[in-house]
Amino acid sequence: MIADLIERVIVSNENMQIRIRGYRFVDATLPQQATSDVALSMDVPFSQRERTGVTKLLIEQHAANNPDPVITKAVARAHRWFEELTTGSANSMAEIAARENITDNYISNLIHLAWLPPRQVELLLAGDPEASGSARQSMLSRIAAYLWNSTRS
């Protein structure tokens, strides 16, 4: 059914053009020859990103204004915890951990997000997929390092 609907897909380095047979959406009572030239075209900008041998197409318009809620919460918590430690309202990560019912290792694995450059935080809040991916990778690598070190002890 989709093959009958799509006329052509053209992929370039910066966008993808999808041509749809428009006559499928036109009044069925019209003669076929009157509608055969009708086509709908849609340009979709994207950026390519290659990681671990897999190429991903990041469709920018789709990702706009959709910040990653996990990353957003982690950054907000890291800023709050760092401010508590620097102002003296909390004496240690262990104190914060006990209050929030989490481990102090979890806090130490996330607190580095408080030092992200302001521009990266802006991109995270704007839903930029590359900024979110970078922050998520940073979080996961620290957690993986912690797990690796704890199993070796």
Task: Please summarize what this structure is.
The protein is of the alpha+beta class and 153 residues long. It contains 8 helices and 4 strands, in the order H-E-E-H-E-E-H-H-H-H-H-H. It folds into 2 domains: 2-61, no CATH class; 64-152, no CATH class.
Outline the structure in words:
- The chain has 153 residues and is α+β, with helices and mostly antiparallel strands.
- The protein folds into 2 domains: 2-61, no CATH class; 64-152, no CATH class.
- The protein has 8 helices and 4 strands; from the N terminus they run αββαββαααααα.
- Strands 1-2-3-4 form a 4-stranded antiparallel beta sheet.
- A hairpin with a 2-residue loop joins β3 and β4.
- The longest helix has 24 residues, at 129-152.
- The radius of gyration is 24 Å and the shape is elongated.
- The N and C termini lie far apart (58 Å).
